[in-house]
Amino acid sequence: MILCVKTLFYKETFFLQDLYEDELSDKGFEIHSATDVYPNLLSYDLENYDLLMYEGEKVTLEILRVIREVRVVNPVMGIVCICDILTKQDLMELYRAGVDKVFLDSTDIDIVVAELRSFKRRLETLNYRLTIGDVSFNVAQQYVEKDNKIVHLNPTEAKLLLRLADSTADNIVTNNEIIHLLNQATGYDSSRGTKVYIYRIRKKLNLIHANKIEIKNKYSNGYYLRVEE
Question: Which of 100, 146, 170, 209 is the most exposed place for a label (fewest CB within 10 A)?
Answer without folding.
Answer: 170
